[in-house]
Amino acid sequence: MSFSSPNEELVRVLKRSEEVVSVIREDSMRAVAFAEVLRLLLSKDLGGTVAPRISEKRVTSHQPRSAAGAAGRILALRDGGFFSAPKTIAETQNELRRLGYPYEMEKLSTPLVRLVRRRQLRRLERREGGKTVYEYCNP
Q: In what order do the strands lie in the sheet with 87-88?
């Protein structure tokens, strides 16, 4: 029979908790699940009573809601004056990439069209060598 120190036991419980929640992809959900699994393992493995549950508050991001996602970031560009002159989707993609948001072009076309439909941006059409090129600007 082997005896372990409380610290060794705690390390074992922490590692087990991490293993259990490693399959959860979303950070906020993983944090809540980790706290709950740890609480249950500590109460079971260390012979204590079940600790009270952590607060049931919803974990939220520190970013303002309007800046989330491609559409919000495009609106932030608009509000910063980026669309004062017409810009193509490639120019929009490059500006977002410069700011640290590396979107694929396919992920920007739908938000741009939706913003045009909501009249938050305006779309201009021009012909360039037999191809139609769309540019976006302030409404």
A: 87-88, 131-137, 122-128
Site of tokens 């980790």: 34
For the chain of 139 residues, list the mean pLDDT of each consecutive stretch of 10.
67 79 75 76 60 52 61 95 97 95 94 96 95 95
- Quickly list H helices, 1-139: 6-21, 27-45, 69-79, 89-98, 106-117
Q: How far apart (Å, rounded) are the C-alpha atoms in residues 27 and 30?
A: 5
Q: Are 37 and 17 in contact (CB under 8 A)?
A: yes
Domains and CATH numbers, the chain: 6-45 (no CATH), 67-137 (1.10.10.10)
Read off the amino acid at residue 135.
Answer: E
